[in-house]
Write a structure and sequence with these properties.
The longest helix is centred in the N-terminal third of the chain and has 28 residues. This protein folds into 2 domains: about 35 residues; about 120 residues, no CATH class. β2 and β3 form a beta hairpin. The protein contains 2 helices and 8 strands; from the N terminus they run αββββββββα. An 8-stranded mixed beta sheet has the order 7-1-4-3-2-6-5-8, with no helix packed on it. It starts with a helix and ends with a helix. With about 160 residues, it is of the alpha/beta class. The radius of gyration is 22 Å and the shape is extended. It is about 25% helix and about 30% strand.
Length: about 160
């Protein structure tokens, strides 16, 4: 009877460990939004090149996550990539001249969106500050395309052949 109790206890611990590993894997992969609130508002941004940006990539300001990428589609009219972002509802004061850029987490990491809020010249004049509203668009003139490793290598090699 004692051996049976020990076996059941060990089995429960193994099951709890596997469940914890599963939750950790889902959390790290970004496939699950159990831990993060999904409530927010949508804005769009147009990019010349999004590199390997994928839906569910993070959106951050100053390294702090403030949202997620909802979708990445090609706009047939403008010939730009149109990225739909879901910004957490607690971030309700993004200036309308906010810039967006595609950044890479590490040398070969995933791409994500970095937002750069540009404050008005006179910061004491907050009453006249206009903020991004749900459905707003960050135009291509306020976005920076992804840095493509292949482009950098080809420019470097072209530069080396000119010098030789």
């Amino acid at each position: 009877m004692r051996a049976r109790t020990i076996e059941i206890t060990v089995g429960l611990f193994v099951l709890a460990g596997l469940l914890a590993l599963l939750l950790l894997a889902l959390r790290v992969s970004g496939l699950n939004d159990i831990y993060t609130a999904n409530a927010g508002y949508e804005i769009t941004a147009e990019f010349e090149n999004v590199g390997g940006l994928k839906p569910k990539a993070r959106v951050s300001i100053a390294g702090v996550q403030v949202g997620r990428v909802k979708s990445v589609v090609f706009d047939k009219k403008t010939h730009y990539a149109k990225v739909t972002l879901v910004i957490f509802s607690s971030i309700d004061n993004l200036p309308e001249n906010t810039e967006a850029q595609i950044l890479t987490a590490g040398l070969l990491g995933d791409n994500y969106i970095g937002l750069l809020p540009i404050q008005s010249v006179d910061e004491s004049d907050n009453d006249n500050q206009h903020y991004l509203k749900p459905g707003a668009n960050i135009g291509v003139e306020s976005t920076h395309k992804a840095v493509i490793l292949e482009e950098l290598i080809s420019k470097f090699l072209a530069n080396q052949t000119i010098k030789s």
